[in-house]
Queue: 2 jobs
Job 1
Amino acid sequence: MTRQILIGMHLGNGYGNLPGAWRAPAVDPTSYTSFDAKVRHAQAAERGKLQFLFLPDGPTHVGDIANEPPNFNLDVMVTLAAIARETSHIGLVATGSTTFNEPFNLARQFKALDVLSHGRTGWNAVTSSGEDVAANYGQHIPSSPERYGRAHETVQLVQALWGSWGETAWVHDKATGRFADPEQVAPISLGGEYVASRGPLYIPPSEQGQPVVFHAGGSPNAHEFAGRWANAVIGAAFTIDDARAQRAAFREAAKRAGRNPDEIKFFAGLMTTITADKREGLDRRITLSGRTFPQRAAYLGRMLGLYLDPARLDEPLSAAQLSEARPSPGDPRSVHALKIARQGWTVRDILAHGVIDYHPVIVGPAAEAADHMQEWFEADAVDGFWVSPDIYDGGVDAFVDGVVPILQDRGLFHREYDGATLRDHLGAPAQYGVDPRITR
Ligand SMILES: Cc1cc2nc3c(=O)[nH]c(=O)nc-3n(C[C@H](O)[C@H](O)[C@H](O)COP(=O)(O)O)c2cc1C
């Protein structure tokens, strides 16, 4: 079968990726606590046949709570449990820290969600960063080798626990009175330098056996970790070359672990403001994020090697400034920022293009997003994207009704779900318990 783009949808705080999304006209400002809102956004993504929802998790809030909502869900597992009951196909991927959770708790919660969702669950196993997160657990952030040392042990333990209830152990035969085959439900008694568990975990397999492992991280340690354990990587890249290099690094690591590199899919982030014309999109972004622009103008200046006066946001860069500008080698977004500046936009509009955002930003007609996705995909830079809409109410629909049909017409995106599990959607191989190739 020809390779096609895979798409996940970011679901964060209930509003969208713009800091002022909670104040948008059609948005209920209490969506942060509304599970109805989250279910509605998930159903919109499922209508577009997207492969999965991705829920990041800190868990902390370091933003400006006086003006902006927290970044994350109230609780990713509770949110996905609610969504699982109101959707039928879309994959449900939640982030769970290997540093600040016990393997037994992770194994139990994720497998229970996998059973509840009939085999649609994914675990984004991350090592976490930031002292503010660690402080919530009364700890400091361990060093990278320690975090990844614990992460390797944790995933191995979690998968061993998932496999500790044998695939055919559950007999539940009322006539004979036999509930389960005890030979197939056995302790694992595994322990390492950081974590240990006896088991077994009393949870039978789901329709996909056990959850699919994802990872998000960028260091060489992350490559080795994902190369061994993950079937998908939630990535961040600003250029095709960067994405291609990251994807290749994860694929090489998978090969070193004795796996087929096609077993690990690389997803780049993409932020969207899909509108009929660019001006409408820029204006929306100015209304909902312009409060930060004076401060961002100073940063944009540093990206371009210029001084930009925060009081003169409504002027384009002068000819002298444009000829003096040099993209900063320290920020991969600088080349793109200069390209936009050269198109003659005002500083306010340059910032409204999202040139200082966490991921590439598309502002404007759906075809622009489709073109971006096609270009990156055909350059072998990605297997797919995780898409983060500016405002979930309306923004998920704009993607599903605008971008998805274009990709489908170009033969780049499927029209129907072929299977019912997340493993099916990602083309991930069957696995139950630990992967014997990794733990031999
Ligand atoms: C695209 C992307 C998404 C991430 N999402 C999360 C997240 O939701 N929660 C979290 O704790 N860390 C998240 N991380 C951070 C990683 O867990 C990791 O702590 C960080 O990248 C530092 O690890 P490294 O040394 O491997 O780069 C994310 C990282 C990337 C690149």
Job 2
Amino acid sequence: MSGLQRIPWNPNLTTPDRLRRLVALALTSGKPVALWRLPGAVHARLCLSIKTDSAYVGLPPALEATAPAGFAFFPFWDSDHNPPLFLPADLFFDLGHPEEIQVSATAAARLPELRQRFSALPDTQELPWHVSQQPAPATASQTEYEALVAAGVAAIEAGVVRKVVSSRAVRKPLPAGFDALTAFEELQERYPNAFVSLVSAPGVGTWLGATPEVLAEIDDQQVFRTMALAGTQPLLPGMKPATARWAHKDLEEHAMVARYIVNCFKQLRLREYDEQGPRTVAAGQLLHLRTDFAVHLAQVPFPTLGTDMLRLLHPTPAVGGVPKQPALDFLRRHEGYDRAYYAGFLGPVNLPEAGVARLYVNLRCLQLRPQEAILYAGTGLTIDSEPAREWQETELKLRTISAILHD
Ligand SMILES: C=C(O[C@@H]1C=C(C(=O)O)C=C[C@H]1O)C(=O)O
């Protein structure tokens, strides 16, 4: 349910200045913000909430057209440390229509105060981004990560799991003069086909990312989509995705994700899905195998399919493992750090159009802290995994987001 009202908004500022000020309006009063750019889209969008308390929700969002409009930010494990968030859309700004903002009834009632605070904001470039209260996560050395991979392979050999996706965090100092909005801009330019996001919220911190993976989407034609994205190799100069060759290990790793998605449809007793793939797709300097799934919602008697699938899908074996619970137990026991919002999911729901939802897996991302960034990457392990290669794959995946940490 969008229910937003359009109002003209301060036309004598440039669009980037208007964006910076709207973000400042939220951050200076301790409120959350989400800024995102959809794959292939030209303009980014911004969501601000003024009722912060109602943003901390227990469940994944409902995706029906009648559900609240806002931005979901969900952790890998839902816990008190990393609360699931749904930012209600009190204020929506589309950078493609910079002359107006859209406001909820709550924000409309407070418009004079918001306008006044907006114009009283100092002209500062520094923004008070939210910082997570959690300690910085443990980071694994190459030896430690390779030991984790070896433990994963041993668990597969022992028949505890068939696939598990191990991951690690890396701490990198922020370059002098680093600015999150400029970094967001750069991510948009570098990765036109990614879902690019910058989310900052109390109790959550600030996260930047450019993910290639759709978790659950309902488009404006009422088509539900999800994808199996797994299997990775570097995109080398002169290489065409369509002619890429894949190792058995990648095909197997991918197939387990695709089978898992089919099983989710089966659990709901839905047979009428369309499956295309796998084909090779590029994501930054990487290639992945992707199978796309689609369901025409008008043609099936499942009005809550999006919501139901979202709840079954997360976390998929692209970031968790197969079977799900033993794989998650393995990660809890062996991974040795807190993934927080890495490999969780995020995206707009009913915002701005009611009935349209776009949720992505939070990959190729980093968490911003005052002096440093925490970067995250993982790799799917199968019985054929070699520890040194899996380390190398995390290094490659880290490059997507570390590209913005230059001087
Ligand atoms: C886990 C990540 O990526 C996932 C794992 C992949 C793999 O193991 O091949 C490929 C794409 C993603 O589904 C990551 O980017 O950190």
